[in-house]
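Structure tokens please, single chain.
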Amino acid sequence: MKRAVITGATGSIGTALIDELIAGGVEVLVLCREGSSRNDNIPVSSLVTRAYCDLDGLKNFVNPTDKPYDVFFHFAWAGTTGASRNDMPLQNKNVEYALDAVCLAKRMGCHTFIGAGSQAEYGRVNCALTADTPAFPENGYGMAKLCAGQMTRVLAHSLGLRHIWVRILSVFGAQTSTDLISYLISSFEKNVPVCCTKGEQMWDYLYNKDAASAFCAIAERGIDGKIYPLGSGSGRRLKEYIEAVRRIVNPDAVIDYGARPYGEKEVMYLLADVSELERDTGWKCSYSFEKGIMEMISLTR
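Here you go.
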């Protein structure tokens, strides 16, 4: 891989992936939304080129560098949080945008399309997630991700592109702001009491740098047509993660377990089986949860 294109690169995984690609000497074209304050998150390097393109502009985007690219990473997605996850027209548009991204990958000379899926595609299960775990999404976001993964695969193959779909579990790291981990760190630093569920959920957290290295490994050695669940491959009760963050940030912080009730469709078990990913690509998770938390804190202070 000499050159790569990334959409949705201003989030936690995208920025870490750019750093990983730069470290490997890969030229990166970042497609970002003009005027977004999150564009400041994009790493600065002579190997990185920015171009402005909204999701609805992918269909007609023209390569500004005239260079051929190798891999297209598609992370961009509208409506990822809150009520917008069940905005069905919006989620349906995301499927169209993903198909536009495949066509753009072809126009830019790419041989591989890698799409960012989600654990939401599975719905609620009580076992470690594999590519073969039956998928029964329970919200529009998960439904659209599932559809996008299947439809982009068919389109990519019809255009002669390799296609790999990565179902991401819970990733934490710098550039996140709405997830539980960021909320905990911020609250503990301010010594604000934290309200949580009982924390009985089995969970799987992955540091963003490990996620980035996984995407690079998948781009280089992933198997065409496969789906890879992406997590650390090891789980703990959510309460154990919360306590680990408290020990690192502020051991005296107050936590009110059970103050927040479980949701109607609360996911109580989330764990990735990464054995196939490890076998195919040689990737291994290198950050413990605690190591990731300490590095995340050092990078945001």
